[in-house]
Amino acid sequence: MSSPPIRANRRTDSNDPDAIIPAPNVTVHAAASALQTMVNTGHPVEHYRLAVATGLPDADAEGLRTFKGRHYVEMADGGFVQVSKDSPSSLWRAGLASESKPSGPLMLHDPESGRWHALEFSPPSTFALSVTRLQAFRTPLDFSHSSRDSDGLYRHDGKLYAVIDNQSYQVLHDHDASTPLAEVMRIVRPEDPVAADVDNIYSATRPGRSEPVVFDADQGWQGIVVGGAGGMQRGSADQPASPGLRERLNAAVNRLRTPQSRLRKLYPSLDSEQIRTLLRTQGDDVPSFLTRLENEYKTLKLELATWLKTSELAGGATNPSVERAAQEIKRCWKRQTGTTLQLDLGDAGIVPLSADFSHVRTLHLQAVAWSEGGENFLGGFTALERLKINASALARPPANLAQMPALKELDLRANHIELSDQTASELASLSQLEKLDLSDNPLGKAPDFSGMLELKSVVLRNAQLDDWPTGLQHQLAMESLDLRNNRLREIPQTVISPASDQLLAIANINRITLIEGNPFASGYWRRLEIYWQRVTAEYPALDHQRTHRCIPD
Questions:
Q1: Alpha carbon 433 to chain centroid distance?
Q2: CA–CA separation, 327 vs 139, rounded Å?
Q3: What is the C-alpha separation between 475 and 46, in angstroms, rounded?
Q4: Closest listed residue to residue 329, CA positions, set 350, 343, 315
Q5: 114-133: b or e for each residue (b if 16 or more CB lie within 10 Å)?
Q6: How far apart are CA 347 and CA 539, in angstroms?
Q7: What is the pLDDT of residues 88-130, one digit of tens each?
Q8: Taking the CB of the first residue and of the last residue of the chain, which one, N or C, has fewer CB atoms within 10 A?
Q9: Taking the model in full, what pTM does it have?
């Protein structure tokens, strides 16, 4: 978000002679939204109940009973209402036989019971907030030189803030208490555990005081009574709504929200301009685009919950490494980690995820108990430019590297990789690579570098190499070659006694090659010294660049 910088940690009391006058409380006047018009009806569902419902046929697969071209549905208590399709929401709405356009509440079908429930909302109960009530929640941040976003909130260091009566307060989204008519936020104390959520989502299970608030177009920020989920009727004790209906209810609520609101809930770190830009790129496909994202995130959360369950420690304790990784994966999906994802699994396994992480450019995995699940996990990262998998007991390079055409840097340090002819050939085919690190692996052999002409850095330190790597003479862009601590006993004649037309090219590689820690024979250095004397005789400028590289201890 491009705005003047936030003057954080500036107190605004009278003792500060340089205090900046805080921004006034923002009041936005707006007409009733299409959402409010859609869900607010003149009468409750009881007004539309049929007095007599005999002779209706059985319900079809959608739960509709069609008689003489009209549609009827059975409610949870056994009563019936007539319904018609509501054009704005594409949902069914209760109506009277005398109406050409239905005027009743929206209706939702519960596929588990076959019954229908009215989507009714009661007006939220709000009250004015007093200075005394909010005293304990104040923060010292001064937002007087920063612009609020379109949702009335300020963003600073990944946190959300509301300004009320010239004071700033940290707030969290309370999705459980929110309805389409009331987007409930929770004012929290920054020092409490509840305030630390990386997604800025309120959780009642985390310790800490809070105050539920909503933003009113006319009154500004108001306190709200949140018992019963903010007034939404989601079932009663004698007629509870099933989990299936609750999901349909949530889906219906999403369809009633604005596209901007739905996308901001998924990507809370994006500012208004980023939200608008992303929606514009979808053209006429915005509704289905948002539905796909919502379903994808829902599935991701279920997959991560299953992973947490299957990774539990002895006694049913949650694995802290897996828990941290699951949170970081959700933050990454929500675009809160930029284009980078770093996970340290503490030697736990990782599972495949169906979500799309094609926005990620850098992936760093540390201490993963590698298995087929790890291979499948990589399948969601199709646009990687940098991949690091360190200390993860890999026995071979990942099989799907060829499906990462943008990959420039590959770091597989400290694994158990032994290269076969096939896996060495697979690495050699990654012609776009610029950096390759296979150090601290029992490779046994190196890939042929002949076709990898973009290479700038190759690290093969401590890789149990007996033979000098091939294809290096073709590397014109090479800046560093590390062959230290291997089992090399000699250097090929093509390297230390090349033909005259190859002398300069080979010298440019040799001067950036490290070979310390190899078991060269005593006196082998003399052959290298003769080689460098030849090079400097023909190319004197290279003498000062050699700096003891490609010279054994």
A1: 26
A2: 26
A3: 80
A4: 343
A5: ebbbbbbbeebebeebeeee
A6: 52
A7: 667 889 999 998 889 888 888 877 778 888 876 555 678 889 8
A8: C
A9: 0.67
